[in-house]
Design brief:
The chain is of the alpha+beta class. It has five helices and five strands. Strands 1, 2, 3, 4 and 5 form a five-stranded antiparallel sheet that branches.
Length: 237
């Protein structure tokens, strides 16, 4: 046998060994899952005290689960013929259905007892409270998202209006009877009033008697092109 043939055979054996180890790990995982399913029935043993509880169905379901888990153990499973292996896997979904049916029957029998009815009522109250909390959480999340979008929109609008401040200042200054006395104090974007005025400007200027006073004037500015669409009367600050 050539050296190359020996190397190829060694690689094939190594590959089959790796696949075999993975198959064993998978089978032990299946055993653990099915076994835990069967053993989890023990959590409902106290419900068997209910009148007309399906005792035979309950214990049979647990026993069948343990048998299926045992059948999937690697030492036994890999000795089964191919057909038997397929049937062993097909038993798992069938067992899940049986498991659910058994739990349902035991639960129904328990809920017909006073204690079981009280537990069912409390469980329903808890479920409704959880639904309310989830709905409230979703509502708050929606409100926060809306507020964030509104804040972002307001921020963009303020930035656009700030770009227009020089135009609004020039317009206000030219509207005064003595533009040379105009002295700007502050210009801010404000929440639109009923006339849509969205900018407030504070400045010092002369009144009709020539005395310097501090005034506030509001204007409506189109942020898209900085046109002054409306301007109010100056009010003394």
């Amino acid at each position: 046998m050539s050296k190359r043939t020996v190397e190829t055979s060694s690689l094939a054996l190594a590959a089959r060994g790796l696949l075999g180890r993975r198959a064993q790990v998978w089978q032990w995982l299946v055993v653990a899952i099915v076994g835990l399913f069967a053993l989890s029935l023990r959590m409902n043993i106290y419900q068997l005290s209910a009148p007309n509880a399906p005792l035979i169905l309950f214990w049979s379901t647990m026993a069948i689960g343990m048998v299926i888990a045992a059948a999937h153990m690697p030492p036994a499973f890999f000795r089964l013929p191919r057909f038997a292996k397929v049937m062993a896997y097909l038993c798992i979904p069938t067992y899940v259905v049986l498991y659910g049916f058994a739990l349902g029957q035991v639960g129904e029998a328990w809920e017909r007892t006073p204690k079981g009815a009280a537990e069912a009522k409390q469980a329903e109250i808890d479920r409704q409270n959880e639904l309310k909390e989830e709905a409230e959480s979703r509502r708050l999340d929606a409100e926060l998202a809306t507020a964030a979008k509104e804040q972002e929109r307001a921020g963009k609008l303020i930035a656009q209006l700030q770009r227009c401040f020089p135009v609004s200042q020039a317009t206000v200054r030219s509207s005064l009877h003595n533009p040379h006395a105009f002295e700007l104090v502050d210009t801010t974007a404000i929440e639109s009033d009923f006339r849509g005025r969205n900018v407030a400007m504070t400045f010092r200027g002369e009144n009709g008697f020539g005395a310097l006073r501090t005034w506030v004037i509001k204007a409506k500015i189109d942020p898209s092109d900085c046109r002054v669409l409306d301007i109010g009367e100056p009010e003394q600050a």
